[in-house]
Please model this.
Amino acid sequence: MPELPEVETIRRGLQELIVGKIIKTVSSDTIKSFPNAKNDVNQFLINAKIKSIRRRAKVLLIDLSTSYTLVIHLKMTGQLVFVSNKSRFGAGHPNDSLVGALPDKSTRVTFDFTDDSHLFFNDQRKFGWVRLMSTVEVPNIDFMKKVGPEPLEADFTASDFADRFKRRAKTTIKAALLDQTVIAGIGNIYADESLWGAKINPKRLVNTITKAEFTRLYKEVRLVMNLSIEKGGSTNRNYVNAEGKKGSYMDFARVFRREGLACLRCGTEIVKLKVAGRGTHICPNCQR
DNA sequence: CACTTGACCTGTCCGC
DNA sequence: TGCGGACAGGTCAAGT
Model:
């Protein structure tokens, strides 16, 4: 899915685009995408005003005036695209757009606002979901209790970072980076990007990583994800922001999807392998 | 408990 | 211009 920088980019877009709007109707094409979208939740949705948009890890939280919250996970191919009352397209159409007229065949849930604008939850692979729950219950769900700290928070230090990995001592560093209970928000792109930056081989076991290496990795995770937020995220395939526009981090990627190209540090050819069941890109010379 | 693997879906790309 | 197989931003429930 969209990883932390992509979800954060969507959050910022929605903050500008839908806060203050009032929901008129909600519809969904499949029960899988919105499991509790039954008539009995309509009373908490219809006529609700959008209060605020939050993010925790890769999850978006849309708080409503009814003291209920829409909890949304985009997984691999989810999109949340706003369409104004003046257009059938995402607000950013046509520049840098991956979406055509909406709704389309991958639209799973549609939110119509009283001013005749819309928010579309599109999801080609149907892994993502929308759930409605009481706002006060959100911190009590399993995911919220288990998820690790936000890596970009100002008070999150290098030693906090290193400490989190003690729970996964005997797995590979790549698997541990992808584990949301260790650190929140890192996915396949930024795991590869930060391991390259820190010059660590993704197959190394956690208990062989030195303090100095953890410090380098901490800095790289923050550098790479902050840069990506600045660039509007990574459009590897489907990702678009709340206006339907692509992100440009892939133009700045140093190793991800660069197999066959020269390492930007040493010129060695970047290779692609499989680690923790995921496609993984490394410089075999820099990352031993 | 800690760790790994397959399943969930649809679409695209690559080799025959 | 077909057809099978591998693969794709992520988690989970099962296995060991």
User: Anything to note?
Assistant: Residues 32, 75-77, 106, 123-127, 167-171, 175, 237, 276-277 of chain A lie near DNA strand B (CB under 10 Å from a C1').
